């Protein structure tokens, strides 16, 4: 049985010898019914797509004081943000926040965050992702979370999907969800229920104005976290420690600072080397040898899944020999 599995793995690799490229990008989950209604209404002089374009700077003591709620990868978590929730008033950050600790040793994570619209009010979320050392790694500004029309099993909401790959050796990563003073001065344009119904049944769409949902300091969130075998888009944390401090590095920003139908990466001035970019530089010799040895060890113990993950991670970092090492080691086991 093992020989058969090894043969299948080898065949798949030989059929696809093109190295895997990883890009620091992430897709929004937009439903088929969403068209032009992801509209943020601004007050004069207020544009959160500009003011929230840069990740907040939070001191390590501030982050360490927060209570990080553990989240597993099973089911959907509902979070009520109200006056009794943790509060953070720091710079542009304002009001109730949610702080989560996620498992970092279960492979890539797909996180779906919804902020539910109730009584024409909604919490406009921003998300800062931090590695195990509480260093900022990725930033999702509020305009990344787009309006979704209600469905059979869902209500009006703001929704965004985060795809993350924790670097090896970490036990947890962190998710800080907050809103800002800029967000609180804006609103989200919804679609009138009569328009949605008319469109759904094929009738003429009535010419009536769409309502707006006011952004508030409180609200209701749902968080669904699941492990996925495919690699995520943003690498969280460093594979190896370095002598260079990363505390001043800026996280990669996910989502454009301009209003477009789908988000793209707006890279900060300086992206930490732990963030994967389309241009992959060759890894250091020590790093390359580490991955090659780890791949051999995983295969020798029959853990092909781990070996494949190591191969993927090595090629993300630019290793030119990891695939050859994998194939040769598989052949030697046959």
Cα(first) to Cα(last) distance is: 11 Å
Shape: globular
SSE order in H/E notation?
HEHHEEEEEEEEEEHEHEEEEEHHH
Strand content: 25-35%
How many helices? The count is 8
Low-confidence stretches: 14-37, 241-247, 256-281
How would you characterize this protein structure?
It comes from Xenorhabdus anantnagensis. Residues 1-24 form the signal peptide. The structure is a single chain. The protein has helices at 2-14, 48-51, 60-65, 181-184, 193-201, 285-300, 304-316, 322-333; strands at residues 39-41, 69-70, 76-81, 93-103, 108-116, 121-122, 126-130, 136-140, 146-148, 157-166, 172-180, 187-189, 212-215, 219-228, 234-236, 252-254, 265-266. The protein is of the alpha+beta class and 334 residues long. Strands 2-4-11-7-8-16-17 form a 7-stranded mixed beta sheet. Strands 3, 5, 9, 10, 14 and 15 form a 6-stranded mixed beta sheet that branches. A 4-stranded mixed beta sheet has the order 1-12-13-6, with no helix packed on it. A hairpin with an 8-residue loop joins β9 and β10. α1 (2-14) runs antiparallel to α8 (322-333) and α6 (285-300) packs parallel to α8. The chain is globular. The chain starts with a helix and ends with a helix.
């Amino acid at each position: 049985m093992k020989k058969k599995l090894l043969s299948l793995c080898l065949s798949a690799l030989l059929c696809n010898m093109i190295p895997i490229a990883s890009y620091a990008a992430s897709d929004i989950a937009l439903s088929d019914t969403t068209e032009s209604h992801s509209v943020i209404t601004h007050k004069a002089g207020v544009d959160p797509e500009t003011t929230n374009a840069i990740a907040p700077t939070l001191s390590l003591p501030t982050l360490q004081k927060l209570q990080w709620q553990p989240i597993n990868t099973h089911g959907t978590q509902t979070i009520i943000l109200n006056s009794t929730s943790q509060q953070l008033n720091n710079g542009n950050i304002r009001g109730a926040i949610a702080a989560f600790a996620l498992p970092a040793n279960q492979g890539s994570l797909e996180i779906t965050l919804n902020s539910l619209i109730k009584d024409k009010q909604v919490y406009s979320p921003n998300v800062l992702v931090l590695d195990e050392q509480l260093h900022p790694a990725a930033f999702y500004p509020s305009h990344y979370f787009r309006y979704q029309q209600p469905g059979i099993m869902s209500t009006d909401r703001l929704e965004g999907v985060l795809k993350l790959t924790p670097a090896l050796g970490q036990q947890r990563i962190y998710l800080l969800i907050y809103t800002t003073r800029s967000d609180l001065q804006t609103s989200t344009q919804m679609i009138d229920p009569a328009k949605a119904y008319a469109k759904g049944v094929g009738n003429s769409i009535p010419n009536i104005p769409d309502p707006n949902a006011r952004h508030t300091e409180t609200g209701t969130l749902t968080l669904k976290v699941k492990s996925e075998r495919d690699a995520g888009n943003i690498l969280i944390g460093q594979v190896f420690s370095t002598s260079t401090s990363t505390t001043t590095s800026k996280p990669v920003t996910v989502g454009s600072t301009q209003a477009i139908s789908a988000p793209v990466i707006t890279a900060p001035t300086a992206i930490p080397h732990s963030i994967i970019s389309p241009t992959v530089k060759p890894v250091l010799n020590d790093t390359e040898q580490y991955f090659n040895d780890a791949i051999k060890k995983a295969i020798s113990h029959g853990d092909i899944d781990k070996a494949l993950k190591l191969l993927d991670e090595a090629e993300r970092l630019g290793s030119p020999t990891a695939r050859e090492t994998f194939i040769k080691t598989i052949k030697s086991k046959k």
